[in-house]
Write a structure and sequence with these properties.
Main location: membrane
Distance between the termini: 20 Å
Keywords: Membrane, Transmembrane, Transmembrane helix
GO cellular component, one term: membrane
Protein name: AI-2E family transporter
Radius of gyration: 30 Å
InterPro entries: AI-2E-like
Order of helices and strands: HHHHHHHHHHHHEE
Shape: elongated
Helix content: over 70%
Length: 371
């Protein structure tokens, strides 16, 4: 390799290392881009009705914040009330179980008595773990503050991108060579369209899962069914892990009514998750963004491994964008051109050779491969 090639390789390695160190910031920027793309589509819908750009953007942002505030207003109060009741009911439940076990000790052989669990001893063993959790509360608060700051950063960047999207797109395009900028413009348009389709598909999946959860919990007679249904729909944005997390508060609230309801809720959420993972999301996403189910699952494993929880949350939109860039740049602009040049090298070409008498004759020469 020549000196210039070595310098280019070293610069590429250094650039990749810097990007890797800034991966969390880049993910936050990407989250802002996704949110800005969603609100921009809503703003364009308002513009099509005759609104000016500024009013359309303001109305879109207002609807977004109204939805966020409404979500927390609907979820937090009933969960707070149910949690307070749960802290009172759970110790009472333990006492009832302990009393029942004591009663059963008189009806079983003495040889089996040592194998019967003692609730009080179990609580004593759990107590140090509980104290350790309380001792780490400061770290939890610190992590919560970091999350809040990250959310504020995403919201601020979203507002900036939404105010003047063309200017930021032009800055990004100028990072590429001049002969390739028009091509990058077309790729960015495809990314925007695909992200809008993904948002539509995700909204449909969230709506279906939320309605199914609300209907099932209402049939079972679980308290706060509306709040739990909304939470289940929202948690569906987190693939695979979200539905599992949403079943915990539902089972806890169901425990306040009767011992069998948590089991029924678990069965209900299991069937909803199976329907969501095997039918709803694959069909909707395949129709909206043409993602195969296996590709979706592999992308989730990849991004959660390298980027953590935020990568899991953004796995699908990241896959949508990555698919377009790989297909357009790597496949069409590199591999297809490479194949075309390789075919040309192996075709018969006509060349002219000078003869001894000065005449020109055409000779067919087959280009040989390097190997």
């Amino acid at each position: 390799m020549k000196l210039g090639q070595w310098i280019g390789l070293i610069a590429l390695v250094i650039s990749l290392y810097i990007l890797w160190q800034l991966r969390e910031v880049l993910l936050l920027i990407f989250a802002a881009v996704v949110l800005a793309t969603t609100l921009n589509r809503l703003a364009r819908s308002f513009q099509s009705l005759g609104m000016k750009r500024g009013l359309a953007v303001f109305l879109s942002v207002s609807i977004f914040f109204a939805g966020v505030i409404g979500f927390f207003w609907l979820i937090v109060p009933p969960f707070t009330q149910q949690f307070q009741e749960l802290t009172l009911r759970v110790p009472q439940g333990f006492e009832r179980i302990n009393t029942w076990i004591d009663e059963q000790r008189t009806h079983i052989p003495e040889q089996l008595v040592p194998f019967i669990p003692d609730i009080n001893s179990l609580i004593a063993e759990i107590q140090p773990l509980f104290n350790r959790v309380l001792g780490n509360s400061f770290a939890f608060v610190s992590g919560s503050l970091v999350i809040v700051l990250n959310i504020l950063l995403v919201l601020v960047l979203t507002g900036m991108f939404l105010a003047n999207p063309d200017a930021y797109r032009k800055v990004f395009v100028r990072l590429f060579p001049s002969f390739y900028r028009r091509r990058v413009e077309g790729i960015l348009v495809q990314c925007a369209i695909s992200l809008e389709r993904w948002v539509t598909g995700a909204f449909i999946a969230v709506l279906v899962v939320g309605l199914m959860s609300l209907l099932g919990l209402s049939i079972l007679g679980v308290n706060a069914a509306l709040a739990l249904g909304v939470l289940a729909g929202f948690m569906n944005l987190i693939p695979n892990l979200g539905p599992t997390m949403s079943v915990v508060p539902a089972m806890a609230i169901a425990l306040l009514d009767s011992p069998w309801k948590p089991v029924a809720v678990l069965v209900l959420y299991f069937f909803i998750q199976q329907a969501e993972s095997n039918f709803i999301t694959p069909i909707v996403m395949a129709h909206q963004v043409s993602l195969l189910p296996a590709v979706t699952l592999i992308s989730q494993l990849f991004f959660v491994t390298f980027f953590g929880f935020l990568g899991l949350f953004l796995a699908l939109p990241l896959t949508v964008v990555a698919k377009i860039w790989v297909q357009e740049v790597l496949v069409k602009d590199v591999l297809d051109e490479w194949r075309h040049n390789h075919q040309v090298d192996n075709e018969l070409v006509m060349v002219a050779e000078s003869t001894d008498n000065g005449e020109i004759e055409e000779v067919e020469i087959t280009a040989q491969d390097d190997n």
